[in-house]
Specification:
Strand content: under 5%
Radius of gyration: 23 Å
Helix content: over 70%
Order of helices and strands: HHHHHHHHHHHHHHHHHHHHHHHH
Structural class: mainly alpha
Length: 540
């Protein structure tokens, strides 16, 4: 019989811990940090919001980040393989995360394409003064009405062509692999992103009215702390901000070397992500303060989030500010870089899963994943109804995809499979910052309570009122239908047998890892040895 080394190659790895940290930060620092956090903080009580935000970071974000790191690093696989090695019945959790990433990748790419076009538009002020709203929705997107005409197939070239370019760029990065592609891209893009955004913030601070914006952003509204919705908002934002429950951190941590400091790395990633969010809040609200002064209104009259902030409010600022083109290029260029680093992490979840399942090479798997995804992305998001599809898909996959799989995962791992002690020991073997009973309580008790509350609240809201006023049939396809399909497909994929060349059959990296765990002289060895023996028999 062929040996493991002849059947499969050893798992790819990041070149160093620093490359992993930059890549993890690149995944966490995405579009939401720039266009969502500032408004969430402003609405949640300004400076007072930092209290629930910090509580959410320390009691949910960081513990769940450690949870993902431990699963990926301990079981040395993509999300489906890592969960399978933990317990055979847990494999559907991994495929659920993979399918969520499939959906997100399809629409995330088009937002990067929009930002790339607006980087070019900013240099020339293409939208014209006072025409920013109409330019984005009518001239650029050529937005149609799904209620009147259904899902359109009319191609919008100024969206479709840059979308093709975005896919070509990320396909090349993905095909180069973990070290030469993902790691190298993050080593270049993350320092550039940080530099660009720092320059943008400094420039925004010198705009007339900037202090009004900062006062609006930081002035604490202590009464907001009595509102449960503010605390729920803080926890909800943290879950999405740190890329937990996507399968991203499980996959990335599986590429770490065996002796890596996991919790120390997690703390760096978590606080770097939060630092960037606060920096984004300063830059965005300084610019909004200028916009409010220019329009003779208050900051509340111009404050917004998401697509409205990025593609309507900021172009208005660019049109009105001295040196506005520079602000626009820096802002939209930062969106492009943040989007690309997040998009490649999302795609890596899918590519790694298929590589593990089929045992294929890197280039073949990348092309098998990316080309169909690019076609779907083009078909849905380069048309006149793209914004409606994107809006609905994003809302439902976040509420009933990411949040739901996180809820199910912590319940199953903590209470059904009883794997938290194994994960705790693994973290403590390799980390400078040790975790104990508090960590297990936060993951096994607090996280399910908070996630359950958020999930039920979202469920009630979307059942009672059709989302954004879209037709029921439309929500049935791109909302509820998609959510149900993800769960069914995840179950079906977990039933498919792992091929003879799959990493579940013969994986020299994992086999070596088990040997190392078994003969580790530390006193915790006995617990780990029993667990690994179970996995060799009942897992992969």
């Amino acid at each position: 019989m062929a040996t493991a080394s002849t059947q499969t190659q050893k798992r790819e790895a990041f070149g160093s811990r620093n490359v992993f940290i930059l890549s993890a930060i690149g995944s966490a620092v995405g579009l939401g940090n720039i266009w969502r956090f500032p408004y969430v903080a402003y609405e949640g009580g300004g400076g007072a919001f930092l209290i629930p935000y910090l509580c959410a970071l320390l009691t949910a974000g960081i513990p769940l980040l450690f949870f993902d790191y431990a699963i990926g690093h301990r079981f040395r696989g993509s999300a489906p393989l890592a969960f399978r090695r933990m317990h055979r019945a847990a494999e559907p959790l991994g495929w659920w995360q993979v399918l969520i990433c499939v959906v997100i990748a399809a629409y995330y790419a088009v937002i990067v394409a929009w930002a790339a076009m607006y980087t070019w538009f900013s240099a020339q002020l293409t939208w014209g003064a006072g025409n920013e709203n109409d330019f984005f929705f009518t001239d650029f997107l050529q937005m149609g009405d799904v209620a009147a005409s259904g899902v359109s197939t009319d191609f919008v070239p100024q969206v479709g062509i840059p979308l093709i370019v975005v896919w070509l760029v990320v396909i090349v990065i993905m095909a180069l692999g973990v070290k030469r592609g993902i790691g190298a891209a993050n080593m270049v893009l993350m320092p550039l992103l940080t530099l660009m955004f720092a320059v943008l913030v400094v420039q925004s601070l010198f705009l007339p009215g900037a202090m009004d914006g900062l006062n609006a952003f930081f002035t604490p509204n202590w009464e907001a702390l009595a509102d449960p919705g503010v605390w729920a908002s803080a926890y909800g934002h943290i879950f999405f901000s740190l890329s937990v429950a996507f399968g991203i951190m499980v996959t990335y941590s599986s590429y770490l070397k065996r002796k890596t400091d996991l919790t120390g790395s997690g703390l760096v990633v978590a606080f770097a992500n939060s630092g960037f969010e606060i920096l984004a809040g300063i830059g965005v609200f300084a610019a909004l303060g200028f916009m409010a002064q220019a329009q003779a209104t208050d900051v509340a009259g111009v404050a917004t989030s998401g697509i409205g902030l990025a593609f309507v409010a900021f172009p208005t600022i660019v049109s009105q500010a001295t040196g506005g083109s520079i602000i626009g290029v820096l802002f939209f260029g930062a969106l492009v870089f943040a989007g690309v680093t997040s998009l490649i992490s999302i795609l890596e979840v899918i590519v790694a899963a298929l590589q593990d399942k089929l045992g294929w090479g890197r280039v073949r798997t990348t092309l098998t994943v990316s080309i169909p995804l690019a076609i779907i992305s083009m078909a849905l998001f380069s048309t006149t109804t793209a914004l409606a599809v994107l809006d609905t898909t994003d809302a439902f996959v976040n509420a009933f995809g990411i949040m739901a799989v996180a809820l199910v995962a912590v319940i199953l791992v903590a209470w059904i499979f009883h794997r938290l002690p194994v994960l705790q020991e693994h973290l403590n073997r390799r980390s400078s910052f040790r975790v104990g009973l508090i960590w297990k309580l936060l993951v096994g008790a607090l996280a399910p309570i908070v996630l359950g509350y958020l999930f039920i609240t979202e469920l009630i809201t979307k059942i009672e009122t059709p989302y954004a006023g879209y037709p029921v049939w439309f929500l049935g396809i791109f909302g509820w239908g998609m959510v149900i399909a993800l769960v069914i497909l995840a179950l079906l994929l977990s039933l498919l047998p792992w091929g003879a060349r799959s990493h579940a059959k013969d994986d020299p990296d994992y086999d070596d890892f088990l040997v190392e765990e078994q003969y580790d002289p530390e006193p915790e060895t006995q617990t780990i040895r029993v667990a690994t023996a179970d996995q060799k028999g009942a897992g992969a």
